[in-house]
Design brief:
By secondary structure, the chain is mainly alpha-helical. Helix content is 84%, strand content 0%.
């Protein structure tokens, strides 16, 4: 379960950075794409810090 949680959180974290960087190069929907990147990165940190501590603890 730890490996799966790590993989999901890593993908979300890196996808968030990708979305935030992509938001500057597109012409439409910059703000929603940037906010989606912030949410994705936040979820990528939330899973191992809060959820995995209670699941595997």
């Amino acid at each position: 379960m730890k490996i799966f949680g790590f993989a999901v959180s890593l993908v979300l974290f890196l996808a968030g950075f990708y979305l935030m960087a992509t938001a500057f190069s597109i012409s439409e929907f910059q703000l929603p794409v940037f906010f989606a990147g912030i949410i994705s990165s936040s979820l990528g940190l939330f899973i191992p810090v809060h959820v995995m501590k209670r699941v595997d603890g």
